[in-house]
Predict the structure.
Amino acid sequence: MRTRKLWPLAPLTLAVFLLASCGGDGQSGGLEQALIVDNNPNSCTVQGSGGASVVVGSGLAGDPAAPEAASGYRLGLTAKNSSRYMAVANTPLAVKAGCDILKAGGSAVDAAVAMQAVLGLVEPQSSTIAGSAFMVYFDAKTRKVVAYDGRETAPAAATGYYLLRQDQTDPNSPKPVPSARRSGRSIGVPGVLRMLEMAQKEHGKLAWSGLFDYGIKLSTDGFRIPGRLGDAIKSNASSLALDANAMATYFHADGTPRATGETMTNLPYAKTLKAIAQKGADALYTGEIAQAIVAKVAQSVGDDAARTPITPGLITLGDLAGYQAKKRDPVCVNYRSSYHVCTMAPPSSGGIAIAQSLGILGQFNLAQYGPANPSNEGGIPSVTGVHLVSEAERLAYADRDKYVADTDFIPLPGSGVATMLNTDYLKQRASLINMDQSMGTATAGDLGPVPLGVDKTVEHGTTHLSVVDAYGNAVSMTTTVESSMGSFHMVDGFLLTNQLTDFSADPADPASGVPIANRVAPGKRPRSTMAPTLVFKGNEPGEFVMATGSPGGGNIIQYVLKTVVGALDWGLDAQQATSLVVFGASNSPTTNVDGSNTTLDLTGLIDGLKAKGHKVSNSPQSSGVATIMRVTKDGKPMLQGGADPRREGIVLGDGAL
């Protein structure tokens, strides 16, 4: 049955209700829900310099997808507003894919599926359909938040020495070659596609089969290589050279790398997306594509002329067929009795660290330590503001390094998340902060006799997207290939990750011999720092305030926290909070102060931090924050978005922005 009704709310030119079941393919049960379609021709476009609407990917003047060399920092970005729906990501073509789905009446999860398909094509240095992701989802109808876990797993044949020894049983065996990352040992059983399929079956509104159309079109007809991809191809050329599929995709016949601005196609990727569109995630986890993945992981010599030895991984068809995405309870905390913040649960450590940091910062009046001149790219952070946030992060990272891993294998101390977020415990941690002197390196809190060693394994890579649909649902999703272009193994048009290097290579602390929580085990998920985050007013999910998150490996906690604090404590708009100088610290004496925006004079900030005992690193940071906020303008609620100036992303929504 189909009916059509006019939707009376502006600014949609025309919206129609098409009855569709709750399931993404119209197959799952549940009450029928109205499908809101936007026929405004200006939606999902940008405004050119003359005020005319420009379609992203058109190549016309003002097209934000027109490639240029990857810049360190884009000046002059301003918050973008829309009325009903919005998508933000770190590359324009992925944002267009998501926005077009929202315009057609799709849900935030539908949009995330389409965006992931495009990201794996145009941003393979950061993401892949054979990678991993975490999603935090808000259902506006039920007012519930759920966390989806699509993290890779170690194969069944892996032991604690999987990354350390070619022969896991021999203590004298050499390490994997040419490195753990470039070997097959770094490749985990992929999870993102199973996760997206699970979420879309529960929250999708459009047919799964149609969510890949734009990715198929781009990979078939071609797209112009963005600056970051062009740089990644060039910088990773020697490692990609060991893989014939990668060479055929990213290099010319004479061996020279494809460059920024060139038009390239990826026909194998189009074929893969078509199979996934028709067969669902099973297309990747069973059959010919699964066989190709297993064969690639098992490769023992490179495709280069030297036939470089490669230690094979041990993934089997059974590992792929048996992979399961998981739904988890999000990590949620109330902040200043005003906001309810929900973020990712383990195996990511990012959510707990964000929640702990907020609990610690809640003991201080941060509002009085906001940045100077916030209208100028978010402004220059204050010395005290950076000091307090960095010290809170040091304490949170210390707990993270010791206690957090895949809780299906290694439980958190005490009562779990509740113990680590206990109010009295966080007050005690906050009391360790000296307003005048940095602690340098923090010690993990005393949470009982937990025999675990400290793991400071460094993470890399990732990308992030935030989406709010016309129904009020929200998605914050961080997705990753790990290091730039992953393991450099390529099959059927997509790269395989090096995600297992997020495990501790050594199963025990070399100094004490105490087991490390984040050690490799069969079926286990490596610890992550990804922290997709949603914020609501009050003390429970309900009135949406903010969706944010960021790539950045081990620094994700810092990137997300400065954005949340910037918005909630310092009153910055979506773009100001996103553009704000990145700052923070892992558990080391060094405090990071982003040097990407060279137009800001940060001398006073740096000198002030040094006076408090901080060692300051002022190198550029590769953040990628994507933020959507609910705001009120002229008495009307609307969405406001900000894209990170350190990446190539944009904001799109209903109506010309």
The two ends are 35 Å apart (CA to CA). Residues 1-23, 25-31 have pLDDT under 50 and may be disordered. The first helix runs from residue 92 to 103. The longest strand covers residues 132-139.
